Amino acid sequence: MRVFSVEVARSGRALVLGLSGELDHESVVQFHEASDTAVTEASGTGAGGPAGTAVTSAAVVTAATTDATGAGAPPLVVADCSRLLFCDSSGIGAFVRLYQRLLPHGAALRIAAAPPSVRRAFSLTGLDGPIPVHPTVDEALVRTVGHDLLDDLPAGTRPRSAGEGRRG
Fold this sequence. Notes:
Layout lengths: L4 E7 L2 E10 L4 H16 L10 E2 L20 E12 L1 H14 L5 E5 L3 H10 L7 E2 L2 H6 L2 H8 L16
Parallel strand pairs: 2-4, 4-5, 5-6
Antiparallel strand pairs: 1-2, 1-3
Helix pairs in contact: 1-2
């Protein structure tokens, strides 16, 4: 059995959850702990602890709420799956739960560098629509955050741009 862990780091205004090992029904609690940090960050009620905290079954996650490159809550959470060896339905459910908890705070979730089995699970379940899957962490971070956040908002809640809705 390989131990599962989550490392929480900040990249600008994004929070990156580095997943390692096997995400399954036995280890999903650690993912939920990191998810709680991400949601706390997105809601603007962060604890203000250090970024880069590793999460294990006995650890409590904290992450900084501000840094030199972006003040306030991160509008983006990226799950770096490059070291994820396995993900069962409990893990997929944990991603859905995190996505649903981030939405009310205007934050987006992106999956990055997922192994083929995880990408396939996201594709088969249709989750790769609302939760974008990117080939690399850099690509997930580089995308224009403001544009993507507007795309992630539920229908009917998007603000209109200045030229929208006018007929010429």
